[in-house]
Design brief:
This protein is an all-alpha fold. The protein has 2 helices and no strands.
C-alpha cells in the first residue's frame, strides 16, 4: 500500500475518533436542543394559529352580527321615514283643514261685521236724510198736527191696555 495514502487515512481516523469520543455528547445535546427549539416553535405557531383562528371566528361573528344589525337599522329607518311621512301628511291635511275653516269663519265674521256696519251706516244716513227732509218740508202747522196725532194714539193705546 502506498505510504502517502496511509498518513491521511490515519489522520482522518484520529480526527473522526476524537470527534466521536469528545464531540458526540455536545453534538447530541445541540441536535436535541435544536430539535426541542423547533418543536417549541411549532407548538407556539400552532397555538398562535389556533388563537388567530378563534379571533377570526369571533371577528367574523361580530361582522355578521353588525351586518344584520345594520340591515335591521336600515329597515327600521326606512319604516320610520314612511311613518313620519304618513304622519306629516296627516298633520298637513289637518292643518290645511283647520286653516280653511279658520279662513271661512274669519270671512263670515268679517262679512257679518261689515253687514252690521253697513246697516248702522245706512240707518244713520237714513236718519240724516229724514231729518234734512223734515226740516226742509215740514212746517210748524204740520209739526203741531203730528204731535197731536201722537198724543191721541198714545192715549188710545193706554186705554186699550187697561
Amino acid at each position: 500500500m502506498n505510504t502517502e495514502l496511509i498518513a491521511p487515512i490515519v489522520n482522518f481516523s484520529l480526527v473522526a475518533l476524537t470527534l466521536i469520543v469528545f464531540g458526540r455528547k455536545p453534538f447530541c445535546q445541540y441536535v436535541e436542543s435544536r430539535s426541542d427549539g423547533i418543536k417549541k416553535a411549532i407548538d407556539d405557531a400552532a397555538a398562535l394559529s389556533n388563537e388567530a383562528g378563534k379571533f377570526f371566528k369571533e371577528w367574523q361573528t361580530r361582522w355578521n352580527s353588525l351586518s344584520q344589525d345594520l340591515a335591521q337599522s336600515k329597515q327600521d329607518a326606512e319604516m320610520n321615514v314612511k311613518k313620519f311621512e304618513v304622519a306629516a301628511l296627516a298633520a298637513a291635511a289637518q292643518e290645511s283643514t283647520r286653516i280653511a275653516k279658520d279662513a271661512r269663519l274669519t270671512g263670515e265674521s268679517e262679512a257679518q261685521s261689515a253687514k252690521v256696519r253697513l246697516q248702522q251706516e245706512l240707518a244713520q244716513k237714513s236718519i240724516e236724510l229724514a231729518k234734512t227732509y223734515l226740516i226742509e218740508h215740514v212746517t210748524d202747522v204740520d209739526q203741531e198736527s203730528l204731535v197731536q196725532q201722537f198724543i191721541e194714539k198714545s192715549e188710545g193705546g193706554l186705554s186699550h191696555a187697561r
